[in-house]
Amino acid sequence: MSPDLLTKVILPAALFLIMFGMGLSLRLMDFKNVLQSPKAVGIGLIGQMILLPIAAFIIAIALNLSPEIAVGLMIIALAPGGATSNMFTYLSKGDVSLSISLTAVVSVVTPFTIPIIAALSMNYFMGNATEFNLPVIKTIVQLLVITIIPVALGMFVLSRWPNAAAKIENQLKWFSILFLLLIITLIVLKNADNMAGFFAQAGLATLLLNAVVLVLGYQMAKLSRLSHSQSVSIGFEVGIQNGTLALVVAGTLIGNEAMMIPAVTYSLLMFVSGAVFSWFVWQVSKKQAA
After folding, report:
1. Among 1-15, 53-67, 178-192, 198-212, where is mean pLDDT lowest?
2. CB proximity list for 215: less than 8 A, separation 6 or greater
3. Where are the beta strands (DSSP E) in 126-249?
4. Which value, to the nearest 10 degrees, does the dihedral of the CA atoms of residues 177, 183, 186, 192 take?
5. Which of 55, 79, 169, 232 is most buried, most CB within 10 Å of its CB?
6. How far is CA 161 from the centre of its chain?
């Protein structure tokens, strides 16, 4: 799974389009909603920015993952939510407005947090025994270019041409999900002989991370006395991460093929665990209605 045209050109370009599509769904009001629901947003941010990386770190230590796989697991934990978490929230009758607001805020923050924490993770797990490095400032600038700028452009288009933006956004929303599946499929086909090894290295770790934080995010929100719909949103925002961004960071910005493995296994498993969690919250909702 070597860095090539896929990781150097196609993935960054696709991420730019995906983030542009996200911008097409965002208004300044979504950021103002953060002030209107400070408790829910605060719980979501704590879950995603603090609980999630801590869970990934504990899992990496507990399973004694190899250094590069451990760093790859940290990278997926540092990625924000995205169209997939928003989709699961919508299908599970969660608070879509809260989900979008959290995605918006975290997407603005992560271009700064991912390079710093990823660099610290590389230093902790890999020490000096690596030829790979992550220049923090350069990486922040690169992430701003492929994440914040397209989001801002999308918001501008929405403010000027709302009808056209709505049509384009609907297409790009599904594109982001289908493209991630396509990328994963291409990686799987390209590395068919190694997939069993990939899952042996990172399958259990990524499954645990995904399942544990889905439940922890949801339960943390419930313990904070948030509504069921808000708890569902926070569960998915904490538990479903932007696999495309993780692939870009590991494969494009760092250029380490082994670090991409957790993003690959996670992106495959999150649809299964997300569907199971969606069924669970549906059952809870039905009991509450009864």
Report:
1. 1-15
2. 235, 239, 277
3. none
4. -90
5. 232
6. 28
